[in-house]
Each structure stands twice: as structure tokens, then as C-alpha cells.
Design goal:
Largest sheet: 5 strands, antiparallel
Number of strands: 5
Strand order of the largest sheet: 1-2-3-4-5
Strand content: 25-35%
Number of helices: 3
Helix content: 25-40%
Distance between the termini: 26 Å
Length: 133
């Protein structure tokens, strides 16, 4: 899956949540391996969707507005926080199988965002997410 493909797929969902595309870094490098990141700006926080060949998965991260657009898994600023670590929401979503097509994986990512964003967003704003990464 490509960063631009996922950005197009999530555009309506993220727009309804108040986010606008800020920057797309594709390609970039994380710990010597290929990676990409998509950055969004909202009214009171930033959102990042990123992938790295090293870790193999796609992650959502949240940060305060003053956070730099830096690859969140590197997190030199200590401002970026994994959305699922901030969230208190529970889901029963089955992780897509390893050979799932891009549509299935993107649909799963969209569902993860829809379930976990509100709780993670509230946690970020209430404590700025300290000690949660």
C-alpha cells in the first residue's frame, strides 16, 4: 500500500474529524529502512499515519499542534504518541490476515481510527499524552 493511496482512502473520514493534509513524506527512512509518513493538522492537535519496513505495520500517532512533523516512531521531540496507547476504547476488530488486499487493510485502519480517535484525542488534550509513548 502506498501513502498517497491511504491518504485518499482516509480523506473523507479524517476531514469529518477536522483534519487537513499537511505533509506527505514518501519516501523517508526509519532506522536505515524504507518508510513513509502522512501528517495532518487539526484544530487542536496533529495526526500522523506512518509505516516502516522495519516495523512492518501502519500506526496512527497524535501530537500537540506545536509538534514538529517528524517520523513519529523516531520521536526525537517526544511529542508524538501512539493513538492506541492513548485510547481507552475497546474494539473487537480482527487484524487483517497477512495476505489481505489493500482495501481490507485500509478499511480496518479506518475502523481503528473511528473507534479509538475520540478517546485518544481526549487523553492527549487532558494530559498532553505525557508518559504514554
Amino acid at each position: 500500500m502506498y501513502a498517497s493511496q491511504l491518504a485518499r482512502f482516509l480523506e473523507t473520514t479524517l476531514s469529518h474529524a477536522g483534519f487537513r493534509l499537511s505533509q506527505l513524506d514518501d519516501p523517508t527512512v526509519y532506522q536505515g529502512r524504507p518508510a513513509w509518513a502522512i501528517y495532518y493538522a487539526g484544530k487542536d492537535c496533529k495526526l500522523q499515519v506512518c509505516w516502516s519496513a522495519r516495523d512492518g505495520g501502519i500506526d496512527f500517532l497524535l501530537a500537540p499542534l506545536e509538534a514538529p512533523n517528524e517520523f513519529g516512531l523516531s520521536n526525537a521531540s517526544k511529542k508524538w504518541h501512539l493513538m492506541l496507547m492513548l485510547s481507552k476504547a475497546h474494539d473487537d476488530l480482527a487484524t487483517p490476515v497477512p495476505d489481505a488486499d489493500d482495501e481490507a487493510e485500509m478499511s480496518w485502519l479506518k475502523a481503528l481510527f473511528e473507534i479509538h480517535f475520540e478517546s485518544a484525542h481526549a487523553a492527549l488534550l487532558s494530559s498532553d499524552g505525557h508518559d504514554r509513548f
